[in-house]
Amino acid sequence: MIGGKYKSLILWKLMTETTLRFSQLQKEIPTATPKMLTQQLRELEANGLIHRHVYPVVPPKVEYSLTNFGKSIRPVLESMYIWGSDYLNNQGLQVNCSMTAITDPQ
Amino acid sequence: MIGGKYKSLILWKLMTETTLRFSQLQKEIPTATPKMLTQQLRELEANGLIHRHVYPVVPPKVEYSLTNFGKSIRPVLESMYIWGSDYLNNQGLQVNCSMTAITDPQ
DNA sequence: CTGCATCCTTGACGATACTG
DNA sequence: CAGTATCGTCAAGGATGCAG
Q1: pTM for this structure?
Q2: What is the mean pLDDT of residues B34-45?
Q3: How far does the CA of residue A83 sit from the closest CA of chain B (Å)?
């Protein structure tokens, strides 16, 4: 369920923003191609973690938000974030909250 | 750093057992081939999460244990375990603490 | 703007056999 | 007992182009 490369980051962004458009997610996660972003968003939706709201307008507008089930994993992501922050601080590094900081550099 | 398929499970086993031999880990994680188990153990060691103690005896005896750094991720694994358990309970399922329960069935 | 279709590369992982 | 060596597969992910 959390197998994808960007899923945890998507969820993390949605934790703090409550609602995000597709283009906003692209800016937040520039390393993810549109294809991958779409794919992982659909999988998160299929697993009931996020909700996809399509506005029937031109140009298209789609907003993503967490479901209650999605919100339930907040403690997990928080503990991961805390652990990662502590680790970086011990290394004398800054937490920049981007891909390179939250995810694994290895 | 936690990219491998069995790493979180290895760490989890070491959390409760404090020290485990290679053969014990094989029994605990039967789906992992010796090759994969070795590989992931070496990576965890390289990342400073576990310690590998080799006894110079015949037949060989190797024990694995958590380093202090490895112990520091306990809160992360615990929150994941709690979240997973809650989810399974809501589904009316039992927690069996094996691969299929802790990791993602998807 | 928000995707989908297609092709391609890569490396994680599995299977099997062998060893000090 | 605790691995190593080799080969093979397969699917995740990237690049690019097109579309409603």
Answers
A1: 0.88
A2: 97
A3: 7
